[in-house]
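Problem 12. The chain below contains 199 residues. Write out its predicted structure in token notation.
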Amino acid sequence: MPTFQRPLTARAGLCLALSVLLPASGSAAALDLPALIECRQGLADYNALAPVVADPLKAVANGLQPLPQTNAFMSEFRLATPLTVFGQRTEYLAIAGASIMAILDLPDPRPLASSLALEDGVDTPEKFMAGRELVSRDVTDPVTGEPMIESVILSLSTVKSHPGKTLAGCTYSLDLPPEAPEAPPAPVPAVPPAAAAGR
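Solution.
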């Protein structure tokens, strides 16, 4: 598994739950899409996007035109006003679970991945994926009080459904801490020979 990827266990459900549990950091109109895509914001900021992209009317009101789904794993939008991220201009973005990504006209993602100091995860003629974890901090679940880890990961990838394009963006997630390894069973003390003989 690439070093920049955290286990996905429970992530999707947690992110959906957090969109309800955590307060939005301002109105939908205050969303800073370039900052979200470039990993310059946090999980609460990303959660403010959830009600916008879930409602086509709200999406359009905020300059996001929903597009027909060409990839079963992500929702795509056309921006009313193009934006520039990572030095690249685009008018399309995608949302996939805990990730927001710009869809760039960039057939070869490797030079951009190198300039962003990303770690290669997959590099084949069919697929490229690279990323780097920028934030990993201990937080507390506001409802249960359980310890959690807030993670922010910057990544680039290619997808088969979008030939000649590069998806570049950020994943904001709240993960369960790694499980502590189980302690080995305590050794059974040996019975001294003298004690055994006296039985």
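Discussion. The chain has one domain: 11-172. Students who got a different answer should revisit the alignment rule from Section 12.3.
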